[in-house]
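Input:
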Amino acid sequence: MVVAVVASLLLGEVALRPLEGRLSADVRHILDAPAQVRALGDAPAPRVLFVGNSMLRCALAPDVAARLAVARGQPCAAATVFMDGSDVLEWRWALERLLREGQARPDAVVLGFTPGQLGDDNPVRPQRLARHVRLGDVAALATEESLSVEQTTHLVLARASALVQNADRVRTRCLDAVVPAYRRVKPRLAATAAPTAMRGGDRRLRRLLALLAREGVVALAVAMPTREGYDVSSTARDALGGATILDGRRPPGLEPGEGHFDDDVHLSPDGAAVFTDWLARELAARLDRR
Amino acid sequence: MVFDSFLFWYFYAVVLLAYFRLPHRGQNALLLGASYVFYACWDWRFLGLIWASTAVDYAVGRGLARTDAPSRRRALLLASVGTNLSILGFFKYWDFFARELGALLAAIGLPAAPPTLGLILPVGISFYTFQTMSYTIDVYRRQTPACADPLDFALFVAFFPQLVAGPIERAGRLIGQIARPRAPGVEDVRAGTYLILIGLFKKVVLADSLAPLVESVFTGDASARAGPEVVMGAYAFALQIYGDFSGYSSIAQGVARWLGFQLTDNFRHPFFARDLGDLWRRWHVSLSTWLRDYVYVPLGGSRRGAWRTASNLLITFTLCGLWHGAAWTFVAWGAFHGALLAARALLRSSAQPERPWALGDVGRAALTFHAFCAGLLLIRAESLTQSVELVAAIVARPVMTDLAAAGLAMVAFYSTPLLLFEAWLERRGDLHGLLSAPWPARAAVQGYMVWMLVLFHPGAKSVFYYFQF
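Output:
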């Protein structure tokens, strides 16, 4: 019987690996990221890599490279790495992996952020990090983030098993299929979870910026637009000291009342066109200056 | 260090590795040390309470063994019961009674307010004090011999698989297993594995997945809830505490089984009970039998007519409510069950004999389940006022909302396979019937549980609910 259970798990593991890209566009994108970044290696400079979460995914028009080229008046290569629901910790480890394994180095990395995604308060999510962290990195990550035994074990298991790594996506897919209004209720249920202890600080961001500096990559940070708007605090500005900050909270022409937002934080395709053109102009000026 | 943490399983692996390399006495010493480490991981400061309880009850047991004088025996018993109830009363009930006494004095115009101490409730205190008290009462009644070996007795009090949330074991059952050499075999490993697996499934998949639904209904402004939301919350909470507590008990049994111990079955498919009396023979069995043997029967049980039976039930279940927590919601919950059982005792002359399931029993089981859920609106509410608001919402706002629809679907998704499995076991009349089922059935059920554990582990853990008792 134990054999049957182990065999069924192994079967699931083998079956899921080729299928995991179909679980969500997000996973597909993460799996494709190394190849995208590698493709930058053949392109003429400047090569720009955009890194962020679904806010940046929705805010960048698919032809961002072409718009950037128009703004510069010269060809420009761009690649994107979007990880839905991610924050600075996941961006940092994704970049560690991409810069190490991508066999290509972008000239500039553009981070799309809101202040809540830059600090050290967000919880560590081992399942998510497992996509980017090698087993050899586990000790370093555990030390940096003071991971508990639970988190470290979960990270190792998720690193080793596609089933564990994709469990939340499989769960969401299944519950979406059988539970009415699950997507609408899910945030309300998530809000009932006990709050995690606030650590404060910006060590994660500083490590990310140090990584880019070490690799000789220019760091640019774009404050992303939201319907309500927000303050970019002086703390965030201080933490981003090593990066150029582009204020994209309300670029000219981007209006919440004009159908430019799909929801409170995600731009519609029309909004994305406005935002991308603005960003292309801002980047063109800065990239050429360097 | 909880059973559904990796830390516990690392700890347990170390204990197991050492355990099988030691002779019998060494095993007991190891288990005792491990039990104290296990408890110290919760809060080492309260180890002293366990030691005090152990020392007093060991000495009382030895004293009872040495004397036949009734007055001295009674004095020894009182010393044991008094010590244990004092520990329990001080840590669990002091603040509650001090607050209520203060409120009462204020109500009659006296300004004196007894001090509240803000004490932390030592984890497991309700369980191990009841366990050691049962020992001295049984020795007093000459139903079990006094334990001669202090090491064995200390292990009886502190045995880590059941130290913090039961099952509340009787000395006659557990001390014998401690004193005898144990040689767990293949059957123990198989049974233990099954118990651990189903326990983890109930806790991690069922209870932890339903916990956010329960929180969303019972936290905050109850007057804003729609009726179906409250009903869904009650269903979800019934299944959550069942998964939580029966899951913990199963894991405790499995962990002990690998060590060669057999612990009491604490839950016997309670949602298949056909009336409330039946439910209490299936729910938290080690507590309900404890209350039966040490409270209900000494009060006279059912031997002195229907009215006396009814009042005994009311007293016993009100105390049962108080055992669960120091708040009026718990007292009301106990009294609610006591009142329903008392009414049943008055309306029915004798207990129904065990009989096979019939079609009409489905309705009885559903009615019993809903009575149980109604009681939960008392125990889970933050106050009696909130309980009333929740009940009012059921009647006043029968509006199906997204939360109610999604919650009911989630309750069905997580609980239906388990309840179908339990129906199958109930039909076989064997609580552990899966172990003797053909291997494809075993593989299918255990495979399902493992898959659900891997894929439907909700991430956020909720603490074992019964630890607060």
